[in-house]
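Appendix B. One record, verbatim.
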Amino acid sequence: MKMYVRCAPEARRDRSTDRWAPYTRQVSQPSKRPSTSEDPRPTPGRKRSEASRLAILAATRELIGQQGYEKLSIGGIAARAGVGKDTIYRWWPSKGMVVADAVMEEAQPFHLAAPPRTGSVDKDVRTWAHALARDFVDPVRADRIRAVTSAASEDPATAERLYERFTQVQRTGFIDRLRVAAEAGEVRPDADFGAVADAILGSLMYWVTARRTDLSIESVDSLLDVLLRGLRAEPVTGS
């Protein structure tokens, strides 16, 4: 950028008027450095926001265990987390959505791995189902499962969030494992793998939400015995 300044000491003589008059001289002015998004300076506001978000999720998990979903409130979460209610609504539109994220983002998340592929579909499915059952029988996680399913029953958006982040992940991994088993000739290729996945996941959810006390590895194995036997059976043909 250029600008003009008057410089009195460097005057010149105006021949038309025979007078001395100041003249203008061009000087360069340093241009401003263009702003960039890669600012190396720290952004304390963002750090504070993330700290508040994590405090809200932690407070939600604590209150779920202490008072359950029904008595949980945005005001109670805000008070426990040390933030205002507006801060919570800045990230979540409802109590149910806060609960969904709090449950799914805990420090030790639920078992989300797909069944292993050791070459034995029976062994792999049991390993996967046993890991899920251990999560579901844990008292703390059982409370959180009941809370998030209650939230999902009240709010379609929360139900969709739960499906995308938990049910769909588990269901897809299980179905993929059965497809591999079908290609290897271990199970019937015409079986409804989605129905089998729903039977296992639905049974586990029922055990928890109904507060059944008989969920165990043995009870899970009894269910798997029936389902895996059906997968191996020859398809029924008409006479």
